Amino acid sequence: MSILRRRRLLAACVVGLACTDGPSAPRTTSETDAGLWHTWVLGSGSAIRPAAPPTDLSTQTKQELDEIVRLQGARTAATDSLMHYWDALPTAPWHALTLDMLEFYWALLPDVRPATPVRSARILALVNVAMYDALVATWDAKYAYMRRPPATADPRVRSLVTVGDVPSYPSEHAAVAAAAAAVLAYAFSFDDTLRFHRMEQEAGEARIVAGAAYRSDVDAGYAIGRAVAARVIARANSDGSSAATPVTPPTASWAWKPTPPKRVKDPFDPMAGTWKPWTISSGDAFRPEPPPLPGSTRFAADLNELLTIGRTRTTAQADTVRYWATDAPSSRWEVFMDDEIARHQLGPLHAARALALASTTMADAMIACWDAKFFYWLERPITADTSLKTAISTPPFPSYPSGHSTQSAAAAEVFAYLFPDRADYYRQKANEASVSRVLAGIHYRFDIETGEALGRKVGVAAVARARSDGSP
Amino acid sequence: MSVKRLALVVAALAVGIGACGGDTTAPSNSSASSISLSFSGLRALDPATEGVYEAWIVDGAGAFRSAGRFASGTAATLALPSAASNGREVWITVEPPGDNDATPSAQRLLRGTLSGNRADLSIVGAVTQGSLTLRERPGQFTMFSPSDNALDGYPSYEESGVWLFNMQPRQTDQGDMWVRLTQLGDGWTYEGWMVRDIGQPNAIWLSYGKFRPDYTGAVNSRDDTGWGPYSGVLDFRTDGEEEFPGDDWISNPLGYPLPTGLSLPLNLRETTTAGAPRWTHVITIEPGWNRGEAIGSERPFIIRPYQDPFGDGGPGIPRAITFRPENVPTGHAELK
User: Fold this and answer.
1) What is the pTM of this model?
2) Are the CB atoms for A380 and A259 separated by under 8 Å?
3) How many C-beta neighbours within 10 Å does residue A245 have?
4) Between chains, do B153 and A112 touch, taking CB under 8 Å as contact?
């Protein structure tokens, strides 16, 4: 088994998917009108509709059925393992892989920076949007052409996975695979990108041998995925994230300065507040009021709170701090989303919509937060009082407002909308994430309160868009 | 409650207590004249570099009385001190080389409470703090080499370093990046190693440094050698300020001694001609006096609770730290 594949399977196991042999199959829901749902980078689901598939009686269809029969006759344990692995929500393996990649690069900060908090959120949004738009386009074509899956069209073909009643052309697994692989190869161009494309090929081949898709279904899916990925990458190339504008912190006594222990001089992503958001109009759309400054009563009180916590921090508090400091906050929420997708047994379109909605919201929240961080440039508590005992290292960017607070509050609004039965739970989770930064000693309480308010505004804007995106 | 019922309850409690077999209040046999000790997981120490074992009888007031020193790692019989008649506990310490005083060192190795004439000895409360046992699932170690990332980016020499943190936090009990280890007594410290050909006569033990968990059990600070003497970083002890123990073995600009047979950058995925991994990750527990050993001359002590073959996984692959209870010393004491 390749290293990447081991990492993938490992990651898939921990995102809440059943993992005896591979992720469990989702409940099949037809989501027949999903081709009409609003897309993020495509003009509509029908914008890249492929040509009609070969007819049932065509020579090509007959040859493709013969191929499936031949492949099924030559199955091995390895084939079956792959087939079973890909008998899951088409987004699940790719989402797990993305989280896995980000988790890995999170550990390389601050020297290697593809997975800073803002960039992690951006990458997740790009991948999830690509997968969602690819699925919407696929569903448009599926119900335009209504091709029966091979396992239901030819008695010689066995249905080796859950086929359901969804038309097979184009293959949704192939579409998602091509979209995700291309976007991951873009986002991690310095990594072994061939691995992504090998995985893409695995996905398509697994669906063919399973009797779930014709080769022409898979080829059409790949074409849709690549077309969507090209649009996503084009957007990414113009979202402002590659601009390397030098910044100089203000020289005021209260201004941000490098923090111990690493004293990183170049803060993470100082221009991220200018990046192109997904839903809100701009990074400064909800810019908060200025923070209290040293010399004010509020600043003194909040700094004093941190000094007290530093002297009295319990093991349970330290564990909460560490939980939320492990991975970018967006990654934590993405795992929660996987849990909810499994808990609610969402179909592929609803799952992809939820992933895209949450991740674009969190990306916007970080853009809004970073706008304020680098507009106000407030120093971190550890440089305001060097006697402060923090539980973890202070990250290298300004304090006000808190990124964890902003992003978690925004995410909680989306979760509350998608899963109203768990609204309170996720708002409490957001509060826990937020407070963890005060318990860590790396944020003032006013940082997290402002972050929560800012995040809620971003979340409300995202939910407003979602309410009119055409989904039921 | 009636008087009769109360009497029954008291009687039942008395029977229950007596049946526990762990009566910690009973003093030792006042007629005993010697103590017989047997151990597993110990070996004879080198007195010049590792010190000697010493047995102690501890009375109810906490006073330590030496029963004598011994070198064997398997068994010893010692004469009891005359004042040991009210002994409650047996302790075994490691006395540092050159330590000739009559007080126990901080290296308290084994401890047991006498029940009648016998005591089972373990490291709990001796090597470890309080009643803590060694953690069975501490977390993960991983391979890559961050000390040159600022210069060379990633990937560069990623097969040349080992670091103690959870690359896949979701696989761990703690769910975060930090390995958790049991807090040790003042006289002990953890040390991390990469060992080539472990168990062979020509095994090479490369230390990546000594470290201790914080008050929560989290291993959240660098070891005593920072990035390590072979990271290529001149000020390797203080540069980087990592939050995790670990070292890189990339280059040797300061000219430290490198064991014969090794060349840099190290390939920790090296295999034998038969394809078996040559490198093993080990965490030992070392006497605190070992701090400051000359680089290149570090040797492991006898407590080696965590050991895992490094394997062929690539950079960033999580590798679980496995508890090896057979590598942790235990013992029995009997007064005769």
Assistant:
1) 0.87
2) yes
3) 8
4) yes
